[in-house]
Amino acid sequence: MNYPRPQLQRSNWFSLNGPWRFTFADGKNYRVPADVREWPLTIEVPYVPESKRSGIEDTTFHRECWYSRDFQYQIPEAGRVLLHFGAVDYHALVWVNDIHVARHSGGFTPFFIDITHALDPSGTQRITVQVEDDPEDLEKPRGKQDWALEPHSIWYHRTTGIWQTVWLETVPRTYVKRVRWTPHLERWEVGFEALLEGEIAEGMELYVKLTTADQLLVEDRYRVIGDQMHRRLALADPGIEDYRNDLLWSPEHPRLIHAQVKLTQGGEVLDEFLSYTALRSVKVHRDRFLLNGRLYPLRLVLDQGYWHDSLMTAPSDEALRRDVELVKAMGFNGVRKHQKLEDPRFLYWADTLGLVVWSEMPSAYRFTTRSIKRLMREWIQAIERDYSHPCIIVWVPFNESWGGPDLTASQPHRDAVHAFYHLSKTLDPSRPVIGNDGWESSATDIIGIHDYDHNPQTLRERYGPQVKPEELFDRRRPGGRILTLDGFPHRGQPIMLTEFGGVAYVRPVDELHHSAWGYVRHDDIDEFERVVLTLIEVARTTAMFSGFCYTQFADTFQEANGLLFADRTPKIPLEKIAEAVRGTRAQGALSWESV
User: Fold this and answer.
1) Fewer Cβ neighbours under 10 Å: the N or C end of the chain?
2) Do 563 and 531 meet the contact criterion of CB atoms below 8 Å apart?
3) Beta strands 298-303; 356-360: pairing state
4) CATH architecture, domain defined by 297-594
C-alpha cells in the first residue's frame, strides 16, 4: 500500500482499507452505532457500494449507509493517533469505540481526527461511520454523478460513502500538521510554510533539507517561534541557462526537489517526514501561456477519472500511474481533470512522471445560498490540499455555467463566478484561474471555448487566420452560448479550445453498443481515426489557440467518445495519436480538407 498523502509522508501509519461491515439504513432512523443490530453486507473499502469492486454493486437510490470495522491498535506511550479519510461522499459522522469523534460534509476533500482519547487501552478498536448522501440533491458539489436512477447522456452512476483510503498515523504531541511549498523561479527560491499542532516549547527547531537526485540544495535549521513558520529557501543560482534548465520541472523534464523535514528539541527528533516540491513557474503573458518563463503550448486531453468496475476510485495505484503513462504516450502534455478532484496519488504520478493538470471543482447544479456555501467550503479545502503539487497549473471553479445557469441575466450568478475567481487568486496568486470554462466568460485569465462541431473544415473556418478575435466574440455561439458576457470583452487573454472532439466509436461486441453516446458517432474504425486525428491537427495548427483539450481520454460507461476503450485499450494506435498531437505526422498524411 502506497502512502495516501504523498507530500507529507511519515513512517508510522496503518491502512484501514479492506473488508468492513456494511448496511443500508434508509428509513431505519439509526442515530448511534448501538442502534445498528444487523450488518448483512460486507464492503471492500475504499470502493463505493455502487461499484463492482466493493462486492455489493447496488446502484439503486440509497440516502443513508453505515460502515463498521474492528481492528487491533495499541495506544502509543507518547503521542497522538490521527484517523484520516481521503474522501467520503457526502455527510459523514464518525465514532471510535462508540464515542462520537467527528462530522464532515463534502464529497471530494479529506478530513482527519485526533482519536487518541477514544481508543481502548486493550488494543481492540472499532470505527463506525454513518454516511448521508441524498442522490437527488442538486445543491451539493457532485460532478458527473447522475440524479436519475439510470445513467444517461454524460452522467454516471452515483458515488455513496467512502471512496478514498482510510488510514491511521501516529504523531508526537507536537507535530507538523500541514506544509506548503511555493516555487519562486524569478528569485530562485522555494517558499516553505509549516503549520504546527500542539504545545510550542522553548528550543524547538525545524530542520529542512532539499536535494535532487545528485545534489544538495539546502540544509537549514530554523527556530520555532509560533505555530506557523514561513521561510524562503534561497537556492544557489547556477546562472547559465543550460544549468538552470536542468533543475526546472516540466512534463518533458520532471525534476523534483526532495525534502526531508524534522521537528527537533534539544537534539531530539520529535517529528519527521518526507515531502517534495519543484522549481517551476506558470503564468499567462498577453495571449499565450508560459511555463518557466517560456511559451508553452498546452496539449491536453479531458479525463473523467472513472473506471468501469470501481467508478471514481482507481482499482490500484498502478492504474493511476498507467493512466499518466498512457496520456504521455499519446503525445499530450497534460490533462483537464473534469468534474472531479482527483486522488492525490494521481497528482503524485503526474508530478513524478511529468504531466500538467487543470484542477476543476465538481459542480453543484442548482444556484442557491446553500449550494454556494457548500461549493466555497470545499473549493477552499481543495486548494489547500493540492496547492503544493507542481503538476497543477490552473484552477477552474466553474464549468459551462453549471451551478450558475443564468450568467447572462442574473447578477448574483455573475457575482458568484467573480467571487470564486478572486478567492482562488487570493488563496493562490501563483496560478492562472478560469472563472467559468467553456462559454459566458467574465472573470478569467484564460478564455476556454467548448465547441463540438465534428467537421474539421468548419472548425478551421470558424477559428482560422481570417477570423479576428473581436469578430469571434461578437458573433460566434458554439453550443448556442455567447463566449464572453456583456461588459467583459476579450482583453487579450489566451484563447484555448478546451473541449472539442467527442467522437464516439464502439466495438460491435461491446455490451454498451445499443446505448453508446457521443456528440457524433462513427461505426467504421477507419473513419473514426480519420476524423479524430484531423480534428486534433486543426486544433494544434490554429494560431488563435494557445492550447487545446480533446474530449476525451477513455470511454466512460455509456459515454463512448474516448481515444481509449474503458479498459484503456487504444482505439487508434498510440503512436498515430501522438503524431497528430505533437505535429510530427509524415508528409502526405491526412489533411483537414480531405474529410
Assistant:
1) N
2) no
3) unpaired
4) Alpha-Beta Barrel (3.20)
pLDDT confidence of residue 284: 96
CATH 2.60.120.260 boundaries in the chain: 13-171
The C-alpha cell at 385 is: 490540499
Mean of pLDDT values over 263-286: 96
Grid coordinates given for 442: 467574465
Per-residue pLDDT tens digits for 451-472: 999 999 999 989 988 888 777 8
The Cα–Cα gap between 72 and 244 comes to 51
Computed over every residue of the chain, the mean pLDDT equals 93
| Alpha-carbon Rg for the chain in angstroms | 25
Q: What would the pLDDT profile of 458-511 be if each residue is shown by its tens digit?
A: 999 899 888 887 778 866 677 778 899 988 988 999 999 999 999 999 887 675
Comma-separated ranges of CATH 2.60.40.10 domains in the chain: 175-277
Q: Is 202 helix (H, G, I), strand (E, B) or coil?
A: coil
- The pLDDT, as a whole number, for residue 471 is 78
Sign of the CA dihedral running 278, 379, 171, 67 = negative
Q: What are phi and psi of 88, to 5 degrees?
A: -135, 125
What span, in angstroms and rounded, lies between the C-alpha atoms of 396 and 402? 12
Plot region of 583 (φ>0 → left; ψ -120 to 50 → alpha; else → beta):
left
The single-letter code of the amino acid at 56 is I
pLDDT at 252: 97
- Angle among Cα 528, 531, 533 to the nearest 5 degrees reads 100
pTM over 0.85: yes
d(CA 343, CA 468): 41
Q: Is the pLDDT assigned to residue 45 strictly greater than 90? A: yes
Tell me: pLDDT of 294 over 50.
yes
For residues 298 and 104, give the distance between their C-alpha atoms in angstroms, rounded to a whole number. 37
What would the CATH number be for the domain defined by 13-171? 2.60.120.260
Instruction: Give the count of beta carbons closer than 10 Å to the beta carbon of residue 580.
Output: 26
- List, in sequence order, every beta strand (DSSP E) within 278-344: 282-285, 288-291, 294-295, 298-303, 334-337
pLDDT in tens, 229-260: 999 999 987 776 777 788 999 999 999 999 99
CA distance 354 to 351: 5
CB atoms within 10 A of CB 121: 7
- Strands 495-501 and 545-551 turn out to be parallel
pLDDT of residue 475: 66
Q: 166 pairs with which residues across the strands?
A: 85
Assigned fold of 175-277: Immunoglobulin-like (2.60.40)
Write the DSSP assignment of 328-383 as a string of letters.
HHTT-SEEEE-S----HHHHHHHHHHT-EEEEEPPPPSS--HHHHHHHHHHHHHHH
As beta bridge partners, residue 231 has 192
Classify residue 293 by burial, with Cβ atoms within 10 Å: 0-12, 13-18, 19+: middle
Residue ranges matching CATH 3.20.20.80 in the chain: 297-594
